[in-house]
Queue: 2 jobs
Job 1
Amino acid sequence: MMMLDKKTDFASLRCDFPILQETNRGKPIIYLDSAASAQKPRQVITAMSDFYYQDYANIHRGIYELSERATALYENARLVVKEFIHAKKSEEIIFVRGTTEGINLIAQSLGRSRWQAGDEVILTIMEHHSNIVPWYLLKEQIGIELKVIPVTDDGALDIEAYQNAFTPRTKMVAITHASNVLGTINPVKEMTAIAHSHHVPVLLDGAQAVPHMPVNVQDIDCDFYVFSAHKLYGPTGIGVLYAKEEILLDMPPYQGGGDMIETVSFDHVTFAKGPQKFEAGTPDIAGVIGLAAAIQYLQAISMQAVFDHEQALLDYALPALSAIPGLRLIGTTIPKVGVISFVMENIHPHDIGTVLDHEGIAVRAGHHCAMPLMQRFHLPATVRASFGLYNQENEIDALVAAIQLAKRLFN
Ligand code: ALA
């Protein structure tokens, strides 16, 4: 059998993404904003519409075949997620609305019920607002303290500061696996081991890691791992919270309602065992099915191949961008995922974004929901180009040409 080389394979995968045939401002779209949200392959869109056309009913309730089919699809998706992140059991997989809800769930269920004023959570300055604000709310509610690990000028975490941050009051380490601004992949396995040596659990925000690289939660040994489907080529409004089973069993519910109970009276409620305890109400069944389809699509390619493809794009893009006079990359440390932030001398990031948009190129320009990190680098904003598996070298060439055009227009 003839083997296609990797580049040819990835170029042909573009055809799976119908939206990439569309235009942006009348030009063929060059989509470099996958860190904000990835585009969806036909396989995901079809899985979701097939569900509505052929198998739709509510789950865990009906005693009829359609409901059984819907329940089987939903629970099979839990298995698919379990295999994808290498959890020990599918009972450790909870479906939530996204990374943000997963972190809020931990802060409110575990933190609010078990911690006291003066207890501490270790965060880093490179966190997305979704891993800052839930802890800030808890600080307002019960008086916990937030300890923030700094980053170096090249965008690496200060590991010495991390090692020194633990005290007898430390209750949680909550850090990002990969930065949505800098692209930095943090040494989370080593950081988890350090936290565990202090008997402190670790929550990883995997929103920007899971789409780009293989993740094995048992190998990392983290206690919690959260991510969103929409950055993983799946639908919006659905995500995953992984938690070690022994911790989950001990956690109180986050929200109350149908499907998360065993028995209900006005005087006493007993709760469902397992992940259902944290899935109150009718869930986003179609979203879960779309997430499973996205994961199966990625598994057929292999996450290692996705990682290698995006690393090759980084190797192509970083020198090409650095060669543009006046362009400064923000976050140069390695390893990094396919996320590149930069600023230009004398041109505001939003102006660059506008020029790129007119050339058909979609990037994000702004604070990227990471205001403390922007302040750390004394910047109001950056331009961010982020890769998905569908991007190709010729799109980097177009990006470079459009930045040069912006330079000519604004200087
Ligand atoms: N968290 C997404 C981003 O970084 C929205 O753009």
Job 2
Amino acid sequence: MLNIVIFGAPGSGKGTQSQRMVDKYGLNHISTGDVLRAEIRNGTELGQTAKGYIDQGQLIPDELMIDILASVLDGFRDSKGVIFDGFPRTIAQAEALKKMLAERGQEVSVMIDLDVPEEELMSRLIRRGIDSGRADDNEETIRKRLAVYHSQTAPLIGWFKDENKYHHIEGMGSMEEISAKIVEAIDRL
Ligand code: ATP
Ligand code: MG
């Protein structure tokens, strides 16, 4: 089983690289952002709650996010492994993931940190906002998301280093160059 955490700030390319790894290794993919956006599109109660946080650039509360993750994971019984994209985003989520996987006799194989300079993140997200119309890809909300990333999510770098799961990847370069570095890290496991 390959359980890969794709990590990085907003706009670091987690979604793009996850899709490439799904195609290459036949893994299941959980993108918590995509799950939440689908709930919003479908007008569910969960979607309404999530929208309030997302539009403010804030994280969805941990208990809620952990329940959502557990139910998606339960849907993948006989999988070859999972790419976790956008989860965990807090230490509490990382601890919950560790416990959930342990209950299934599994663990995270590697955490891949896509490291991209802040100016590049900003310009990618502004560009994405123009193309995709994502409501949280506007300058003010992007700044809030980057601040939330630094205060709540970046501490996971140290957490995964302590677990001996951390793998740093320089996230500047073409999609192909970055994928090649990720594949190299996975194939070394
Ligand atoms: P990327 O561009 O690298 O794919 P992103 O940060 O732009 O990443 P998503 O991962 O799609 O975007 O997340 C969008 C929003 O959904 C977050 O800003 C947050 O409000 C909410 N969200 C997603 N995952 C989580 C999580 N694990 N915990 C709490 N909130 C989450
Ligand atoms: Mg994404």
